[in-house]
Design goal:
three-stranded antiparallel sheet, 16 helices, transferase, formyl-coa transferase, domain 3, six-stranded parallel sheet, single chain, CoA transferase, elongated, 2 domains, CoA-Trfase_III_dom_1_sf
Length: 374
Amino acid sequence: MKLEGLRVVDLSWFLPGPYLTLALADHGAEVIKVEPPGEGDPGRRIGPPDGRTGVFFRNLNRGKKSLVLDLKRDEDRKTLLRFCDTADVVVESFRPGVAARLGVGYEQVSQRNPGVVYVSISAFGQDGPYRGRPAHDLALEAVSGVLSLTLGDDDRPAIPGIPAADITSALQGLSGVLMALLRRVSTGRGDYLDIAMHDALVAACANVVGPTFAEDRQPAVKQERTTGGAAFYRIYDTRDGRQLVLAGQEEKFVDTLLGALGRRDLAALCARGPGPHQQPVIEFLQATFRQRDLRDWLDWLGGLDVCFAPVNTLPEAFRDPNLLARGMVLVDADGRRHIAPAVRFRDEPARPSLREPLHGEHTATLRAALDTPA
């Protein structure tokens, strides 16, 4: 696998850091997950269990080794530094300044190991007026403006279904780690990555900030191109109370569907771009899709060259034939399902371990190896 031989010390909890290090583990890195004594990573106690641990925890920590250290103890902090001496990557998600106060910040680690790539993931970053403020995903979605773009039928912000700040910051961190490791090949030196969830989420807004950057105004959310102002980028109800989406605004898709429905005359309204003038098209499609059940529409639309999809439930989504055909659902020896790595290499594909560590499971063996002369 691509990352075999890479050692990662993971001091992160919950979601962003573990999601980053999961990708490294899935592609062959040795990831040492450092957990406190007692109950360990709080993620171990989130959501329903289906075996050794909860689904939430195993989805983010499979293939890692669990090392229990009490970083309030001098001896354990010294032990951690010894592990960091042999690490290629260190990831931490403490509040800014905490790692340094514990003696395991970037300056302390890099003095001993100049080649280390050290990542700090926090809500608002290592500097700035919000530096010490605690926040989880929803707060970041709010302060970044993202929540103001996600409106329900009542025009109030709605809680998004996935933690976009967590995931985007993890992926930005992952890309930064890989860039730093590539650069280390020529310089021999690592680097320090300051990843703010706030920054990462704002960076993901590139396609929606046109009105703000050009005219210094809030987008008219329900009249914009991808948030409700286009008939061919919307959610429609069907007769049986289900929903389908149209998600392709190109002229060829508009002409194809409206032509098949006998209303090509409405295509000119779509050609003018998003906005209130598309309301006649929206109303026509709303009335049309309410006339038949979802399954009927999926069969009929499947014969046309248009962008459409059912609004699946999660159980339906994980039975989707395309997802299954691409091997995105893995099953372990105990019958538990896992989400496969999304990065697919032709050569050296990922071989994820489908086993998550018990709390402190590898403490003895890792400590023993640390004390064994090379």
